[in-house]
Amino acid sequence: MPSTDGLGGASDLSRAPRRKSSFFLVLAAGLLLFAAVIALSFIILRPTTLRIAVGPSGSDDQQLIQTMAQTFVRDGDAVRLAVVTTPGPVDSIAALAAGRADLAVARTDEEMPEGTMSVAIIRKNFLVLWAPTGAARGTARKDGKSKVKAIGDLVGRKVGVVGRTQVNVTLFRVILKESGVDPGKVTVAQFGADQISEMVRDTSVDAFMMVAPLDSKLTIDAILSTARQRGEPTFLPIDVSEAIAARHPLYESEEIPGSAFTSSPARPDDTVETVGVNHLIVAPKSLSETTVAALARQIFTAKPSLAREIPGAAKIEKPDTDKDAALPAHPGAAAFIDGTERTFMDKYSDYIWGAVLLLSLLGSVTAAVRHYIKRDERRLNTLHREKLVAAISQVRKIDTFEELDAMQCVADEILRETLQCYDDGAIEEADLAAYNLVLGQFHHAVADRRVALGGTPVNMSRMRAS
Hints:
Layout (H helix, E strand, L loop, with lengths): L9 H5 L6 H25 L2 E7 L5 H15 L4 E7 L3 H9 L5 E5 L8 E16 L26 E5 L4 H12 L8 E5 L4 H6 L5 E6 L4 H14 L3 E2 L5 H7 L4 E5 L5 E2 L2 E2 L4 E13 L4 H21 L21 H8 L5 H30 L1 H21 L5 H24 L4 H24 L7 H6 L1
Parallel strand pairs: 1-2, 1-3, 5-6, 5-7
Antiparallel strand pairs: 3-12, 4-7, 4-8, 4-12, 9-12, 10-11
């Protein structure tokens, strides 16, 4: 009598792998997706900190930048500032050039590293040139008359220049040369900002020069000291300021308004033509345009609140966006000023598409892993189908209803296993359709054999439903 071993025993089927890994794969994929979204959000939303070199310690520039940094933190802005205090602007530029800072505060006419561009003008400096009308008190000179009334009168004389760096001396020599005066015929003596009283009392000095904001306390104190020590100051106009600005783009033609320093008496008593030079925040062109645009927006947004804490912040201005400017605006700052900043999609499309590609790759890897893990179940399903095909011919040789019922039970168990494999994703719908075709032929063979044995055909629709 034929055996039902062709389909295998029910105990063999119970030992078939029944992995429940789909849930864990989906969970792992979900966790990876969540981690990717969190990482992307962290990259996009975390603040960017820029190191800014400024000095000297305690100066107006240093206080302004420190207050600006605190304001950005308080407002939760995307760009933060870490203040790097230096001895002065020259050292700030050196820190920028050496990579110890991302930004620096310096004058336009400082020697900048290649590719340095402007982000924001924090103030405008005016050159003030004046001469006393008399000698210092306690000296023998009693003429009480100013010997210097114009740039040309400086020939053969000595001029005290406030500032230890070379930039002010360079600017003074440019003025002399453009005014038709040989710089070699004018003696220059440099004094520190803490030596102004000494400079004013020095009777060998015939005129004084400073480069600073109009409301600079140092400038006002120097002029008042001159008036007290050596008589009312005479302010020397720079009549060639426009020519200087045209030939030397680092400088600008400016005017000192009447009573800019004192009002009673008026000093100066009328407008005085002079030269100006900007003091600004600079950055290398290589610094991210998006970051600089955000920084520029923050600076000008915070300007009103900064001005309430530090009045000098009201002088902050936007840099020149002309590409031909001596120190043009950084592309990021220019984009903010011109209103051409990139949209969110422009900024982050690369990240978004990267995330999409990452998720696509993750899906492919997950599918490949699932396919590998389910390989045993696919082989088992193929074996089941082959056994059913072989069983069709065996059915025709069975002589008892008991054997048919046993074989039918085993076929039902195989169906259950096959459906479980399909639910787990181990086999595709096409595999299930092929199996269903074989199973239908098996049921037809069983029904035909029952009839041949003198029995009643099994309800085919019921068997298919099982």
